Amino acid sequence: MKYDYGDEERGYSFEYYNVYLPLCDVYGSENVLLFDYFSEIKQNGKEVMNKKLKEIIADIKPDLSIFCLLWENQFDEKIILLLKEKTKTLIYFFDDPWRQKFVRHWIKYFDFFSTPDYYMHQQYLLDGFQNVIYSPFGYNSSIYKKHNLEKIYDVSFVGGFSPLRKWIIHNLEKENIKVNIFGRGWGKKGNWISQEEMVKIFNQSKINLNLSNAIYNDPKFLFWSLHSLENVKQLILLKKTKEQVKGRHYEINACGGFQLSYFIPGLNLVYEIDKEIAVYEEVNKISGMVKFFLEAENLRNEIADNGYQRSVKEHSAQLYMKKLVEQALNKTEK
Predict the structure, then answer these.
(1) Are residues 223 and 131 in the same domain?
(2) Of 277, 270, 334, 312, nearest to 116 (Cα)?
């Protein structure tokens, strides 16, 4: 999808910024064709979109076709199978750790599939899938940069509303910690920002919070949530049962920002905990860690710089996209 959730008013999508544009950087925009399947469906319907996709692939015969972020069952399985006669096909997953039923349905129709989660990659291998490729999110190095701006925020959070995030920030405020909130759904407390503004905020914040929005079973949180019908509704509709290393982990560090994140297995494989990123394992520890790092300026800056150096060296989306394509083109499906 070219646009965020297929909505042009929301701006470009994560995959546009972090998959398509990096591919263009590596291989040249003339060699990368964007097929915005969701806009095609809105304009002409699912059947016409699938037919058009088949015709384009048959005409161009690309070396590799990457199907990025299938939202639901928009594609025709029979056509996907036919495409394998004209091109190598790869389905690129974002949220496979908590969408396993959906994932297990679709992977059998493609030559290859990817996962950004290290332990899911290991699980797929244990399950006998040899056509899986480990491909972390990374960050778009043309967008996320260190600008050495003045720190005008003590603590910031950039991200969409969720009851868990609201509860965490509410508890921080009770400890007299002001959190500057930027993101969709926060009402008067926050606002939606552009990509450029987000990069500035990462650069301008002493502490950038990275807060989980998965299901959380703390009794205090669940009791607090009952006081709001909107919170209860959000929790009922929430499908995300597991967390994973996300793009935000790489983006904040790539801007040279100090990051205090939730811990998730696998994060320690891409950043060294306590040296390149700070993490909390218990929500009730966040306020103490925030107060500590606001005072420990030298340590905070050292961790931020180490995380930045690691990002530049290893974690650009351009590097990961190049590796992904090379692995798919050189890999033999079994």
Answers:
(1) no
(2) 270
pTM for the predicted model, two decimal places = 0.90
Q: Could you report the per-residue pLDDT of 212-271, keeping only the tens digit for each?
A: 877 666 767 666 666 776 666 666 566 656 788 999 999 999 999 999 999 999 999 999
Domain-located, residue 266: yes
Report residue 194: phi and psi, to 5°.
-80, 170
Place of tokens 């297929």: 6
CA distance 217 to 220: 9
Q: How many domains does the chain have?
A: 2
Residue 78, token pair as written in the block: 């029979």
Q: How far is CA 135 from CA 114, 120, 131, 179, 313, in A?
A: 6, 11, 13, 33, 16
| SS3 call for 110 | coil
d(CA 117, CA 105): 18
Beta-carbon contacts of 270 under 8 Å, excluding residues fewer than 6 positions away, are 136, 245, 249, 250, 310, 314, 315
Q: For the chain, how many residues are written? A: 334
